Amino acid sequence: MKILVAIKRVVDANVRVRINADQSGVDIDNVKMVINPFCEIALEEAISLKESGAAGEVIAVSVGPDHCQEQLRMALALGADRALQVATDALMQPLTIAKLLNEVIKREQPDLIILGKQSIDGDNNQTGQMLAALAGLPQATFASQLTFLDTNGISELEVIREVDGGLQTIAMTLPAVVTTDLRLNEPRYVSLPNLMKAKRKPIEQLAADELGVDLSARLSVKKVANPPQRSAATMVASVEQLVEKLRTETGVLS
Amino acid sequence: MSILVVAEHDNHSLASAMANTMSAAKIMAAKTQQAIIAVVAGYECSAVADEVAAIAGIDSVLLADCPALAHQLPEVLAPLLVNLVTSKAATHLLAASTTQGKNLLPRVAALLDVAPISDISDIVDGDTFVRPIYAGNALQTVHSSDAVKVVTIRTSSFEADTLSDGSASIETLAAVDSATNVRFIREELSESDRPELGSARIIVSGGRGMGSGDNFVLLESLADTLGAAVGASRAAVDAGFVANDRQVGQTGKIVAPDLYIAVGISGAIQHLAGMKESKIIVAINSDEDAPIFSVADYGLVADLFDAVPELQAQLAS
Question: Is the Cα torsion angle A182, A183, A184, A187 positive or negative in sign?
């Protein structure tokens, strides 16, 4: 079984982002960049499926400029067999990324495609669902557990999904698309020797503009602004004072 | 020309998120001078269609009621919605930004060749929307050039509609086929007598400071005094204190109750993103430097194991 994992390069979650003075976007110059945490979970799942013998090959793919090779090398160091960059300097939106990944699926014919449920920069939560639609595949978003089933000779992937009220379990025939939620696994740490070895491994490249995909952006960002700030708390000295303030100043305890 | 709204339900009744989604739909309808058409898709869900027909502001209800739609799987529902967008000449397709809406709408958008817009917190005009990015640390204003806008609504950013006083007509649609590559197996929904996090007027939330899952009894007891829901930070969920569906935060539930009481929660960015739109925030923490105090309206530096029972006693009296 061949697994394709999509990887996105994002600003580290611990960095407090700053808005550009002209409100055109977020300043990401000289900021620590990492694999999106949900993509890391996707990669971990693929690698552990390989280690358990369920999967044969794990391919990491990223869409973007050459900077994203850094995250692809990290994927190789963590255990991916191959890394593929869909190279473009254009600003990518989820619909375009889904179309490009669909072209990669046509070439690589993976049995399972695993993506993070969302990236922690754009917070869109769209790419996996759109890729599944374009490829005509079933989708299991927000996965917290994957199990392979063999029901009367038909192999299926059973997925437990985290939904608003609790958990939902579905089964899909392969090929299929899965997006990961937080509790699917805990990603491993990379070892230094593997990181060094990954520096010498090749990264395959495809040019985005040669894949026959419309790369034009449908959405234009008009402005990026700071959210309204809340003022710091009024500190109270006792529970009694707290209750009194809630009763007299807020009206929420009426 | 119309605005299509996907009604979220469990075949028996409307989800609470519909109240906020409906408010957003009305704003969109007013800005674009169009009628709102609601889609109710499910199985044996005619009671839901009746409920939706009674919402003022809805022009008509389309009811797709057949076994293939029993679990509203996106593989079945998305093609149906694509057909409805075309046949009703819809310019907008809306759903709540719940796990159901997030699962479904991007799939519809891709089939329509449209770039969807997730989790909008404000509507500038029919083509331009505001949405949080970077876990709510920035607000992006985005304009769509697509003919159809496929949009999910951040429910905490829109007031709840009363969902009453309407009398729309109901049109029944033809049955659709089941999916062959996916099947529903089961659903385990958490049972609770307390209100849902998404619609509760008051939420009491606990963090790592609670120390153990057993100690959440303190918060549950306080919540019952207040008629509140019980939430938790990601740290408390990751520590195994409570189940994941209690999690408030950017990767959990986004809430905006009238009163949010954060107990033993330090205030990580990702938690603040999920609750900072609450009207009044109270923080109780033993660490006076905890970041939660920077977003709280009222802060109390105290040992929660003393303060919470005392708070409950005073509120009960």
Answer: positive
- Give CATH 3.40.50.620 domain extents, chain B: 2-172
Interface probe with A: pick from B103, B111, B201, B225, most Cβ of A within 10 Å: B103
Q: What percent of chain B has pLDDT over 90?
A: 84
> What homologous superfamily does CATH list for B2-172?
HUPs (3.40.50.620)
Give CATH for domain B202-316: 3.40.50.1220
Please tell me whether residue A235 adopts helix, strand or coil conformation.
strand
- Per residue, the 3-state secondary structure of B74-138, as one string, reads HHHHHHHHHHHHHHCCEEEEEEECCHHHHHHHHHHHHHHCCCCEEEECEEEECCEEEEEEHHHCE
**pLDDT tens by residue, A98-129:** 999 999 999 999 999 999 999 999 999 999 99
What residues 273-312 of chain B have any CB closer than 8 A to a CB of chain A?
276, 279-283, 293-302, 307, 310-311
H or E segment and range at residue A162 = strand A154-163
Q: What is the DSSP letter of A194?
A: H
Give the pair of three-digit tokens for residue B255.
């809430």
pTM, entire model: 0.92
Q: What is d(CA B223, CA B129) in angstroms, rounded to the nearest whole number?
A: 36
Provide the residue count of chain A: 254
- How close are the terminal C-alpha atoms of chain B, in Å? 56
